[in-house]
């Protein structure tokens, strides 16, 4: 992360493995501290504005509660209130909000909008999901994998489905943290080549193996983590029927789980469409980690906010090992 981008969190393309590891370490530490009853108001007096152009449950509530638990305050702005790019340009919204608040989360359609906000804001801007990436989700995902598997380096992940925002951030984080990943998508629905190229370059440094396939069984073979996401993302509702047919062979079902490692965990960022991208028996089954994953959105937001604001509190408890090297306490 260069200084120009250091205080924003828009994408995992310009973040390195050590920085992701540090956000994960802080997330794990703050989770352990909260569980132990510590209530340090690390963000006392800080305010977070959240701009939503799309619906949200997890992102909205977890950032709101994270700010509250850290002693700060969050305010959510619904699409009709801001009308980003319609009532007012991202540049003006960024400059005005920077005069009121200490950080901005934005969930947008076009990734360019969150970039535009960051370019004009004088406070940190966090991507709360764009058409290109969902970096906050990836932090919670790897916190969950770390907790379930005790390590990230060498973990094998199989992603089955659309090469979308969630897949992009998962792929980038995996490549930078030394986890291996195979993505199975139908032809025409793969991850964007620029994102794959960035991940491959990172993988050369970390030893992560990256594979792309159209065969969901190849992605599931022997993996420690099986991951899927919706077939039609927000904004693609008009493609839903076509996608239902194209993606039908890509359902994360019991047959795929049977190909994976016996202790595989099943992940989904939620919301899920049972009977489409994931079978009900799988999301409700013994391998499912989806609600631990959803909970970790809260702890990951705290870790990210603490990282961006440069606050850490007193001596930590807990900690975690990233890539085989212990960086926690
Ligand atoms: N996973 C996730 O981002 O959920 P929301 O869309 O509910 O925020
Ligand atoms: N890919 C999904 C993720 C939702 C959290 C979407 O963009 O709608």
Description:
This protein has 329 residues and is α/β, with parallel strands linked by helices. The protein folds into two domains: 146 residues, 3-Layer(aba) Sandwich (Rossmann fold), CATH 3.40.50; 155 residues, Aspartate/ornithine carbamoyltransferase (Rossmann fold, 3-Layer(aba) Sandwich), CATH 3.40.50. It is 44% helix and 14% strand. The strands form three sheets. It has a five-stranded parallel sheet with strand order 7-6-5-8-9. A four-stranded parallel sheet has the order 2-1-3-4, sandwiched between helices. Helix 2 crosses helix 7, helix 3 crosses helix 14 and helix 7 crosses helix 14. The longest helix has 20 residues. The radius of gyration is 19 Å and the shape is globular. The structure holds phosphoric acid mono(formamide)ester (CP) and norvaline.
The low-confidence runs, each spanning 5 or more residues with pLDDT under 50, are: 1-6, 316-329
Distance between the termini: 24 Å
CATH topology of the largest domain: Rossmann fold
**Percent range for helical residues?**
40-55%
Total discrete domains: 2
Ligands, ions, cofactors: phosphoric acid mono(formamide)ester, norvaline
Question: How do the helices and strands follow one another from N- to C-terminus?
Answer: HHEHEHHEHEHEHEHEHEHHEHHEE
What overall geometry do the principal axes of the alpha carbons give? globular
The strand count comes to 11
Count of alpha/pi helices: 14
If strands are numbered along the chain, what order do they take across the biggest sheet? Answer: 7-6-5-8-9
Main β sheet profile: 5 strands, parallel
Query: What is the CATH top level name of the largest domain?
Result: Alpha Beta
The CATH homology group name of the largest domain: Aspartate/ornithine carbamoyltransferase
What is the name of the CATH architecture of the largest domain?
A: 3-Layer(aba) Sandwich
Strand content: 5-15%
Q: In terms of structural class, how would the helical and strand content be classed?
A: alpha/beta
């Amino acid at each position: 992360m260069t200084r120009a981008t250091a205080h924003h969190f828009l994408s995992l393309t310009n973040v390195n493995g050590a920085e992701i590891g540090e956000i994960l370490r802080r997330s794990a530490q703050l989770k352990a501290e909260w569980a132990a009853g510590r209530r340090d108001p690390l963000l006392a007096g800080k305010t977070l504005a959240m701009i939503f152009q799309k619906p949200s449950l997890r992102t909205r509530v977890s950032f709101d509660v994270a700010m509250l638990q850290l002693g700060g305050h969050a305010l959510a702005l619904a699409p009709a209130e801001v009308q980003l790019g319609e009532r007012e340009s991202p540049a003006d919204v960024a400059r005005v909000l920077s005069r009121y608040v200490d950080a901005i989360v934005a969930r947008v359609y076009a990734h360019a909008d969150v970039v535009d906000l960051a370019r004009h804001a004088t406070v940190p801007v966090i991507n709360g999901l764009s058409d290109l990436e969902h970096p906050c989700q990836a932090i919670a995902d790897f916190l969950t994998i770390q907790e379930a598997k005790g390590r990230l380096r060498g973990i094998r992940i199989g992603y089955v489905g659309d090469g979308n925002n969630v897949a992009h951030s998962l792929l980038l984080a995996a490549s930078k943290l030394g986890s291996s990943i195979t993505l199975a998508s139908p032809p025409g629905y793969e991850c964007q080549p620029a994102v794959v190229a960035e991940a491959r370059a990172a993988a050369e440094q970390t030893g992560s193996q990256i594979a792309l396939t159209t065969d969901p069984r190849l992605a599931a073979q022997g993996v420690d983590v099986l991951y899927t996401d919706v077939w039609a993302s927000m904004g693609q509702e008009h493609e839903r029927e076509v996608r239902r047919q194209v993606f039908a062979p890509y359902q994360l079902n019991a047959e795929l789980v049977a190909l994976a490692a016996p202790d595989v965990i099943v992940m989904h960022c939620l919301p899920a469409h049972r009977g489409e991208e994931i079978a009900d028996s799988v999301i409700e089954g013994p391998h499912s980690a989806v609600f631990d994953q959803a909970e970790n959105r809260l702890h990951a937001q705290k870790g990210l906010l603490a990282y961006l604001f440069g606050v850490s509190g007193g001596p930590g408890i807990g900690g975690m090992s990233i890539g085989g090297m212990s960086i926690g306490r």
